[in-house]
Amino acid sequence: DLSGTACPPDIADIILRTRLAFASGDMSRVPYWRMPEEVDAITDIPYIDDGVRGHLLDVYLPHDAVVRGGHSLPVFVDIHGGGFVYGYKELNRNFCVQLADRGFAVVSLNYRPAPQTDFIGQLRDIAAAFSWMDAHLADYPVDARRVFLTGDSAGGTLALY
């Protein structure tokens, strides 16, 4: 809520201007969001089933992963950046596709930006995504014993916690 009722109006204004500045730069990425035939994506999976966009994740797999059988793929979990106030999983799509094209499974997740929640709420979102993975990774051809965590900018900070 950027109306100023959930946070002071001056902070809401700073957050809104930051989001607009980030978005103007990110729009140049959109034409390059292509999914190669060698990669399959299962998108917008709710890790908390509450209808909140910040609680969705995507799974990227090499196309031949099911054919190879077994649970052999190592998993990268990617947390996007955005200064804690902006961003979404699709911004890292090319990175995730490149990892999947090289034989990794990738889980790319959203978390709620400020002021929808605070830093602790964002950490809880990440923890909830890991709970979902604990319950559901067995449904995919992955080795849940080989999970790597990556993030950029704010996502890197969240990954450290």
UniProtKB/TrEMBL annotation:
Pfam family, one: BD-FAE
Gene3D superfamilies: alpha/beta hydrolase
UniProt keyword annotations, A-Z: Hydrolase
GO MF terms held by the record: short-chain carboxylesterase activity
InterPro entries: AB_hydrolase_fold (IPR029058), BD-FAE-like_dom (IPR049492), Carboxylest/Gibb_receptor (IPR050466)
Domain spans labelled BD-FAE-like: 57-160
Name of the molecule in the record: Abhydrolase_3
Organism of provenance: uncultured organism
